[in-house]
User: Fold these one by one.
Assistant:
Number 1:
Amino acid sequence: MNQTVAGETIADLAFRAAEAYGDRAAARWQREPDRWETMTYRELAEQVDAFGAGLIDLGLDVGDRVAVLAGTRPEWSVAHLAIVAAGGVHVSVYPTNAPDECAWVVGNSEARGIVCENAAQVAKIAAVRDRLPALEWVVVLDGTADGAVPAVEIRRRGRARGAEELRRRSLAVDPADPYVFMYTSGTTGPPKGCVLTHANYRAMMHSDNELQELEGSASGKDVVLYLYLPLAHAFALLFQLNTFDHGGAIAYWGGDTARIITEVLQTHPTHLPSVPRVFEKIYSLAVGSKPDAERERILAAAKLGVRVRDMDAAGETVRDEVRTQFDAADTVLFQPVRDLFGGNLDLAVTGAAPIAREILEFFYGCGVPLMEGFGMTETSTGATVNTVKHHRFGTVGRPLPGVQARLADDGELLLKGANIFHGYYKMQDESFGAVADGWLRTGDLAAIDEDGYVSIIGRKKDIIVTSGGKNLTPANLENDLKLSPWISQAIMYGDRRPYPVVLVTLDPERVLPWAAERGLPDSIAELSTHPEVRTLVQQAVDAANAKLAPPEQVKKFAIAGRELSQEDGELTPTMKIKRKVVAANFASVFDGMYEQG
């Protein structure tokens, strides 16, 4: 990824890329399973021209906010690039949002228009339209819907109008102009609209280019990015922009979570950004399904892989007998793990939530460079990252080029750089998210070692203080529990209580087949109370507790009778847990663990 068409704004990115990359593939997607279609960079620019000119014909003015309510698909990218090329400001709405959540984002941003994926998404807006006085028009991408202008009509109007004004506007955008209103995931309250400028995101793209030059990480391969994450999230947006900037191809997720691994195998990506839950599931597939003896053999080999790969990276000599062991393991044990990622991966990046160190080390040892980073919507996605050449597992890496990090007196991580946002639209928060003298207060407690590697201790608002005054950080225990193939989520609880307890959810993809083999019930609700399942979970709890001091250990656990869900407000679109909602929804379960004595 060494070639780039980097400019000073995002507004002309599609047109720069078309000039540089022409008939190279920009996007791949499936209209139906296993049939992939391709769009070139030239075709991408033509689509942006038509859609952007059509929006201008519809009445889009420079500076207008336009929301997009759609899933991860090429049409999202076209709409996004068209809006900003026309001088508009993109407003991201998660496609999983309920009507009330859509009303909050569209209303707070004062969006003048919205682009919806289909009739079902249009219906969400129709249900709350009376609460959106600034909203004037709705566009629907697929088919038709009452009260919406079909995308085919927008493109027809755009082609009839011509792209001259669109191209002029794209060149007139200033780096300081707002680029996106990106709404936080709302784990602690209503989502806040981060105002991010063209310069903010260009700073991140320049930082990525500089980091690649410093690391010498360009492989020379044609870049293929498999994109599963919602493009409404800052993490996915940055990877999309970097891929287009460097002339890579995006393989868009088809919309079925059960087919993620299948699609990865079909597209052979070089780059895979995702959230921990995806990597946790692949780890479970690679390790958790194996008999105990074989699992221990794979894990031991992966530790050898870590040692040899680190020695190779440092230019150290590996003894012949160790190299022989490594080569044998690489063929028999590591290659099948790499094949789960399509066999062509140069880099996988995890962020948005903590991940267990054991998972990072396992994949790295097997030759899958899974690197953890840290960032926020307020930092235009990124702030720190581990790299293949410079990593320290258990940390979130070192600050990106152009980013500074230091600690406040209470241990809160502070960040400074050209990527720091310009405040929340129509909202003020004097603590988390506040910027003073250019330093962003992240809300995370952290440590920074002598080599500059940052370790996140936990969210300030997530710290549990027991009735005995003990401060507990939930993340370590929760991550250890999720190493179990049977557990999908874990939530420690215990604020102002005498001791901590934990609620876990079962992974249906592992538990249900296991139960069927034993003639046990075929529902999560029934299995959650079954003695054999409780024994499995107890073993995981005992293993996690063994790593903690006695006051930090959970004394009891409960198994939820269902998975956590976005529909019940318990998870964000990037699978982060909304602790207050979980505590409220499962209040009787938590109370019951203390009433048992």
Number 2:
Amino acid sequence: MENNSSLFRKKTVTQILSDAHQADQASGGLKKILGVRDLVSLGIAAIVGAGIFSTIGLASFNGGPAVSLLFVFTAVACVFTALSYAQFASTVPVSGSAYTYAYVAFGELFAWIIGWALILEYAVSNMVVAISWSRYFVTMLAGFGVVLPGWLTIDPGSAAEAFAKLQTGEVLTTAEQAAALAYQTAPLLGDLRIIFDLPAGLITVLVTALVYIGIKESRTASNIMVVLKIGVVLLVIFAGAFYVKPENWTPFAPNGVGGVLSGVAAVFFAFIGFDSISTTAEECKNPQRDLPRAMIYCLLICTVLYVLITLVLTGMVNYKELNVADPLAFVFERIGLDFMAGVISVSAVIAITSALLVYQLGQPRIWMTMSRDGLLWKKFATIHPKYQTPSFATIITGIVVAVPALFFKMDFFVDLTSVGTFFAFILVCGGVLYLDHTGISAQSKFRVPYVNGKYIIGVFFVAAFAYTLYNGHLLEAVADKPLLVVFWLTWAVLSVLGYRHRFSLLPVMGILTNLYLMTELGASNWLIFVIWLVIGLVIYFAYGYRKSKLA
């Protein structure tokens, strides 16, 4: 064990497994019922959710048909990361995901930072998913002739903005006209207009109740919903293929590489989720064998679906028309197939519900693990005697997601999800280098395939840096994105360390691709993430540092 007064005190793999076993003995533990098929289903449920049904439109609008290549690039970055996650999951099969992995590799302070970042990732992802669900649900009800009052289906900010535009005489889009009308017709409480997104809050409460009742029920619901949504995605691909006009694919990258990469946050959001299945490790029948397989399978399946659906969407209509909240339904409405648009709206509601389910499943299990280690209040580790789920943590997760989903805009959350996730991904990839360096990898049932990076990392660094300098892009790129300095410095350091310690190439590729994608995110994302981090550090030093089991 490390010095127990150190910020970087670490847990050994044996210690973590022993703590999980003791917690099981004390509380009856979680039900071990998940196999490979269930895990792949949960992974697909998380990945093929709000991303493919909503944010894919914005990414296509910015990057044109070339966004299909961005999906491939992002998937490659995710594969490097997924392999690293898979190695950790096979070494430390407990519910803490990247939080637990960081505890082994980097020590307590980094573990806390990652746990805190994951709270942001999961909670914020679910807010986006809940708001997206609400939009599709309202569209679906309208298709059946049921129209909810506007002020019950929108956030106050969007309604007020649209009304302000109306006052200045600006030309409003159809969506903005509806938002302005919602503002005008909202009931008043004194001077305050009552406006909130009721469906978003309601679905969060219902899904939280299902997750509270049990993993078995959640698994069954997830499996059914995944079969339905994969069927619909295939239907969109095959039906849409008949309406593709190849001329819509030219120009392939209308806004250049910059336009394509501006969709990074949206596209990456569409992939987040493969890591969430690692939070169910303690409910797997054979986590060390099944988790690595499931992560790779669901990533491959989802990448193929994403690339095909992006090519079909941008082939059916011009990319300039795709900046809408429900792009899949929109393209079929646009070509007059209202029946298909209706089918997609119904299935989107189902698909997005399953994504919501997986995130609501993952969040409480991370809190439970942090609580077991003493870093959060003991109550978060409470297991329900009948349902065998982390009951208190599940209820708090429901409240934390439902309240903001009632009152905030979706755009605000999409970008926010990515920073914490990239941060977690980089530490997990770095953690594998630590496992290799210290020999802990010998305990891993699954290992990232070893490719000796001794010379390759440095050679690629020199080539890439020389190419950027030669083309004169370096200064303007750094002026535009100051974080690129961190990227180049990290690559330089990894080149030296890789030469000295014969680093495995794939985890290094994972670190670099995630770090590069991170530089593409806006300053506001970073600012909010830093504020979130500061709040987390205050809580850690006020509570976790003193109450930690290792202290």
Number 3:
Amino acid sequence: MSSGAQLDLVDAATAGYPGLSKGMVDGKALDKLESVTDRASEDAFGPNGEIYPTAEELQTLRRVYGKINWMIYIIGIVEMCERFAYYGTTAVFVNFIQQPLPTEGPFPKAGAGGTNGQSGALDLGQRASTSLVLFNQFWSYVMPMIGGWLADEYWGRFKTIYVAIVLATFGHILIIIAAIPSVMANPNGALGSFIVGLIFFGIGVGFFKCNISPLIAEQYEESHPKPFIRTEPDGERVIVDPGITISRIYVRYYMLINVGALVGQIAMVYAEKYVGFWLSFTLPTILFLFCPLLMVVCSKHYVRRPPAGSVISKATKLYALTMKGRFSVNPVTTWRNLAAPDKWENVKPSNLANKPAWMTFDDAWVDEVRRGFKACYVFIWYPIFWLAYGQMNSNMVSQAATMKLNGVPNDVVNNLNPFTLIIFIPIFDKLVYPSLAKAGINFTPLKKVFAGYVCGMLSMAVTAIVQHYIYKLSPCGDRASSCEEPPNMLVWIQTPAYVLIAFSEIFASITGLEYAYTKAPRNMRSLVTGVFWFTHAFSSAVAQAFVPLADDPLLVWLYTVIAVITFVGGIAFWWNFRALDKEDDQLNALPEGQYSAGGETKTKEAKA
């Protein structure tokens, strides 16, 4: 091919692509031109002139992050406000439920104990506080399943988020009413208002959580759906990878979550201690109202996906069809049938002689559903991880109250967790993960989750050791929780446990959100994200079985048992998914399927 012909082809095929231009016609540039001409017949160019990599280039070229636009950060700020409201409110639940009203302090009737006093309100004890805190976690993380279903099938993400805000605000108001001093004077009335408030609060939180995280990643994916090649200033050709870019988006999103959590928790704990619970419940509610304001003001800039109609029922019918005839009285035969590699291939529309009327989608959508179910299989193991994580906001808060506080509120110490996350998330984002990639180490999502299990196990081991020394050094022995004199142990000895929990979140919690988004069918992302959060709810239900251990003298056993379960669960998780780990790139590269709710095919995103 002549140089002139090559230049004409470059002009036609790479318009708008800065990596190749008319001046690149000799030396190494000629190889690039030939590569471009080879792609011309392969539909390997994007709508903006970007060059999609070949299979060989996907294996050989270095991968880099794409640019994150400002709208993604705006949505992150919305979630930051919501997390301030959630964690600022729940940070004082343990003391509100467990501890009695103080007899001294700046505002004892409002529950404020002051510098040397213990704040409290309902005086229901540690087991009751653990149970109600676990109920709140369970309820808040069951609701994402329902919110995800409503968003994907009927309302869309935006309407579901607005409904969530209304319901959560009503719940906030009822919780505030429970903390009014005149209401707290009647503990039964305060408890009733508090529990009803928790129900509405949890519905709003759940509907919000399952929709805001898919929404943030969709803002990037809409303009960058596939990996493409970019030439760096030094001439190196690299792949701009949406997969690792979405991973970075979730890392930064999670950092904003923890900024909100840290500020909310610290501020409200001190509001509780020096003014009263009514203030620590009111201020988060006020900030929560910024969520709808930011959503409405910027709504015309957001990328939106319309609800997909009966997508959940069709996915369920498709899964049932894959299972048809695969069960046997012989368990070995059943196992082999269920593990058969062709079970999804056999139910693709192109392979069925008599296609059911409900099968209004193509083969590619079947592959997407298969990938989504694989993600759900991964999430089945998450309750074991959350079991260790859940101790941070319940029993570890109570453990802090048994040590020397020196004027620090016992329920402020767990802010070491978001504080650690804010420090280390940028370190992992900018240094650790890029360094591993440059070294050729593919730290895949499932490897990260396994690392999260290990850190969770170590955190519980540290907590068990701390509890052992509390019993050993307390004047009351293994009745330390009811002892007026604390052992000679500063509360900051809990620091390593909270740091390890933070590391476990970086590895497993952030990765779970990323995995839910990248592996779900594009019209089922809210529901699959809801499945991810439901595992937290299931873990809270399982944790109820450990409530009998959540009191003296059994607390060492509580933390030790959870550490062992987390360790065994992590080993089993990796053994079960080590083969799936090798498929990650192929699963991410699946094309978007054609899906119809019965009328118009829905594949494109719409801008509001």
